[in-house]
Amino acid sequence: MANEAKHVTEQCNAALNAIRDTLYVLSGKWKIQLIVILRDGPMRFNEIQRALIDITPKVLSRELRELELNEFVIRKVYDTFPVTVTYELTPYSATLDPIIDSLRKWGVQHRERIVESRRSSEERLP
């Protein structure tokens, strides 16, 4: 029995560690949004900032740097005048597709549930 409990605890700890790693890499409200935006192809910094609307240049720069460090984004510098810098997804970023798709599906389902719940609440009011 003690071995069984230890085994379950080790599995649980391994699962928690994997989830912690995932959350560490994808933490914050911008990283997944950045990955989704870059799915359409390479973009320049200002294009990304316009697409995300509320992100500050400082935060965008930090988020792109972290995504680059974790091998989800490639920063390409072109020898033009002025210098052109683009950001694009790496092939490795495609490993996030099932996660992002699941988040999207859950988000749609959750929004529908909340809207329906509020609609039902309003209908019950006198």
UniProtKB/TrEMBL annotation:
Keywords assigned: DNA-binding, Transcription, Transcription regulation
Could you tell me which residue ranges the HTH hxlR-type domain spans? 12-115
Q: Which domain of life is it from?
A: Bacteria
Q: Name one Pfam family in it.
A: HxlR
* PROSITE patterns in the record: HTH_HXLR
Name the UniProt record assigns to this protein: Winged helix-turn-helix transcriptional regulator
Q: Which organism is it from?
A: Mucilaginibacter litoreus
